[in-house]
Amino acid sequence: MADTFSPFAGALLLCVDIQEVFLKSVADGPQLIKRCSFAVQAAKGFGMPVVFTEQVPQKLGATIPELLKLAPDAKQFGKSTFSALADDGIRDAIRAMDIEHLIICGLETSICVYQTALDALDAQLQVTILSDAVTARRPEDAKVCLDALRARSHVFVLPSETVFYSMLQDVKHPFFKTFTQLVKNHA
Fold first, then answer.
1. Distance in angstroms (rounded) separating the CA atoms of residues 68 and 104
2. Exposure of 17 by Cβ count < 10 A (0-12 exposed, 13-18 middle, 19+ buried)?
3. Could you give the angle at the alpha carbon of 51 between the alpha carbons of 57 and 178, nearest 5°?
4. d(Cα 176, Cα 169) in Å, to the nearest integer?
5. How confident is the model at residue 154 (pLDDT cuts 50, 70, 90)?
6. Domains of the chain, first to last
7. DSSP state of 112
8. Which of 4, 7, 71, 148 could crosslink 50 through cysteines, CB 3.0-4.6 Å?
9. In sequence order, what are the beta bridge partners of 13?
10. pLDDT tens, 112-152?
11. Which residues pair with 107 in a beta bridge?
């Protein structure tokens, strides 16, 4: 596994459990929606696939509509497992897409995001967690989990703009002007 962040063609944005019921339980729900919206739009601008997971959607509801509208062709997967990759359907779908790198946003950092990152590493995937696009009911738990992932597991924990600017690499990139407008709109 690489020791530095390197963008490449096999990346997927995995939006974990961004459901109204969970957003109500975190203090920074509106900010999370804003940062995840930025990530979805940036991923789409790069032609990166986007996948949404939903924790027991038949009981807890679907992904919030404003995110789904930003990626109408994105796959949505219900799950009962905490790790997205512990669900056979999600894991098999990601394998079928020939994904090498998961970029993760959503919630809850200390439960579903954490366990998904660990399972992705076990599956030999590179993992980047968008530090400004994840949250938890207890921020101190989220910090401990992100620190543990950084230290033990070679998970990259970086701000969204850092990740997507790394993908641009140059102001000559065809997505540059649109991307900088996204940055301004989601500041």
1. 16
2. buried
3. 130
4. 9
5. confident
6. 11-185 (3.40.50.850)
7. I
8. 71
9. 50, 103
10. 999 999 999 999 999 999 999 999 999 999 999 999 999 87
11. 135
